[in-house]
Amino acid sequence: MHIFEKIFRRGVKGVRKIEIEPMTRLEGHGKIAIFLDDKGNVADAFYQIVEFRGYETFLRGLPIEEVPRTVSTVCGVCRAVHFTASTKASDGVFGVEPTETAKKIRELFLNAHYVEDHCAILYALGLPDFVVGIEADPAERNLIGLIKKVGVDVGKTVLKKRFAAVKVLEMLGGKPNHPVAGLPGGWSKRITEEERKEIESLAKEMVELGEMTLQIFEDVILKNEKMLELITADYYRVVVNYLGTVDDGGKVNYYDGTQVGIDTKGNELFRFRGKEYLNYIAERVVPWSYVKMPYFKQLGWKGFVDGEGTSLYSVGPLARCNIGEMNTPKAKEAQEKMFDVLKERPIHYIMAYHWARAIELLNAAERILELSQDPEITSPDVRAELGEVTGEGVGIIEAPRGTLIHHYKTDENAIVTEANLIVATTHNHAPINIAIKKAAQHFIKENKEINDKLLNYIEIAYRPYDICQACASHALPGRYPIEVTIYDSEGEIVKVLRNF
Questions:
Q1: Which residues lie below 8 Å from residue 193, measured CB to CB, with a gap of 6+?
Q2: pTM for the full model?
Q3: 159-179, pLDDT tens digit by residue?
Q4: Domain extent at residue 12
Q5: CATH code at 206?
């Protein structure tokens, strides 16, 4: 039993609590609760998502064709991935296989989102710690500070080339923010030859952005001995299993493929597609968060532990690199270099998520260029005829943050009756808790001053996972109330915590 649950039930004498609230440089609202023992060492630490979105509940009653446009509003950052996964699920509800052209347009759309999203996460949320400095003034440790370090011209180039991805999203999705073009069985708009040429030109800019990003990563971080030591530090190493999607040739595919689970040593545990995920992933509800806690079902729940035999797993850029090969040449070369430098596969150093994210930015850009040069991309055959309502559909894609599952059940009129969303931050919920606790135990010691600089070393333990709490918070805590009363040893109330 964790100390948090002990406090939940009866209170613990002498426990002190440190809170990091708000958590910075991420999407959504959450906080970190760190509990100290009588000596001032870390007894336990928890990552808590304290906002509640509840899309699993209020999607009920919607026509399935309206669901993609609705779930795109879960998050302003992640709108394209929820839209794509939900559109794939709607195919299943109507028993239809999209045309090959429609699949390629969807894949092109998703890869454009990858470039836009990975670029924003790297430059605005992840890299400032490494480029500006982990102990730098928070007023400088941000996107503006990063641009000052790498140069204003570089900053302008990044913004310009990132806009190329946004432009492609707008062209294909119908809107720059919340897309509308997806339909059960296909896509509502074909790509003209003029648009194809424009996308090809924009793709070349995105490839340049990917190459430049990897060069910045190498020049600023990999050539800095202190930074490389941080990346390979034991206190930023979380040994878990991994889940990702590959094609028939074992290469990473973001839009479609087979989901593969591997263990901590890289051995394959299972493969699944569609609703078979229910045979391999179980979701545990915890009393202190609005996000569920998935684990590999066949291994059984073993608690918040990492290492060989754990049932916990991670998803996302590093997980995908651990499981499959990048499907484009320049990205594959960069992936191999990462394994050579870090000297392990699977890689368990969580800071390598940033490196893997930079590799994927280039991979997605290369794939956009390939698709833009495919003659079939301009075919007018963008939608297949619908079949009979099957009453169930599952859409699984690889979002930039990791594996995304949308599962819907409907009535005979294709009206949603049940919904289940498992998003990347949900998959990563338990490993994030472990990462935060390891960092806290390393940096917070008895008689050591606790200040903002020290606490940022704990915060950088969650940033590699690119947390999106709005996307993940759809589950109500089980068994326990949301109000917690802490008592002292005499039974007197010390504090009441609500939505802690």
A1: 378
A2: 0.92
A3: 999 999 999 999 999 988 899
A4: 3-52+429-498
A5: 1.10.645.10
